[in-house]
Model the fold of this input.
Amino acid sequence: MAGTVTIHEVPLGDPRIREFVGFHWRHYRGNPRWVPQLDGDLLGNRLLGITGLLTPAHPYHREAQATHFIATDASATAGNGAAVRRDGAAVRRDGATVGRVSVVIHRRFDHHYDGRFAFFGFFETVDDPQVAHALLGAAADWARARGATVLRGPGEYANVTHERQGCLVDGFDHEVWVEHTWNPPYYGPLIESFGFAKAMDYHAYEIDLTKPLPEKLARIARIVRARSELRTRPLDMNRFEDDVRLIIEVYNQAWADNWGFLPIEDWEADALVRTLKPIIDPGLIRFAFAGDRPVAVLGAFPDPADLLRPRWRWPGDGDLVRLARLFAGRRRIDHYRLMFFGIVPGYRTAGIDALLYSEVVAHAERRGYVRCDVSLLLETNTPVLHAAQGMGAQRTKTWRIYETAL
Done:
């Protein structure tokens, strides 16, 4: 890229955060794969009662220190290459935004893992190493100055299990499902060219629900149902918030040993309630109990991604229009994403996975669902990968988390 690349720091509360968010709309203009969050989820929306993640008032920032950087091309030639400045100056009127990145130090994550981590996220860039390296260099400098020894990403803000995260490295032509990230194929090579190496991969699998349940899985489910004292039930919408707390209780036990895990706190559970309640089909969420103790939960959700996908030919296709489209079409969704499936230690060889999955598939058949996405699955979680394959799933995508020492 000819010209001067300038990096501008945009702290929380800076009005230029709107440009930080607005860049992705221009960057992906017309792209049929990209499905963004609501602007309100990032910037806030009083009418919808949303506190934006990128605002100082969001509870995320009680336990994290965050800042943001924007790269602009100031349209000035500097010899044979691009001069890079990190001066924090205001965005010039003649400087087009060409990239962005956030960087976070998550104090609770550091305490949980007894480390000094920083995370880069919200990473978007044109296909130019000078721009990408300038952004990643700014993030690394900021993190190093605050004592971090490892920089990891990309994510939203961080690479915590329950956050949107990952750089897509395989499966670019496959459908984007709810909470999946999508990026151009050049992102991975640009990140690696800065000096990052793979830290972890996540996979997605897809199941054709029009095919019969695999016989081995069906047989295990029948045996467990006949011989076990386990009790199962679907989500109860009459006690919705209590059941969400049960999900969090099981999650914080079942995922505790997973890479990137961090216990979910109450405010995160409240955000989950607000986000997912409009699309929930109670029959796709099932609990297993040993006596009164919840020991497993399977959570699948009708996938609203297509309804939230921007209609580029429509003017004014903003949050309210996208939400109206979601509410009008949510009962006609014919595919779902299996987002979490956890069994607490001590019950993982009892066949609960086969039992709960068979019950969800039976409900799905009655309701006319035809496809299921299972994601995001850690590449190191062999039992879960085998379970997905036992459900008849085929791998469709891979996301990568990168890291580098500071």
In short: The chain is about 30% helix and 25% strand. Residues 219 and 354 are 9 Å apart (CA to CA). The radius of gyration is 22 Å.
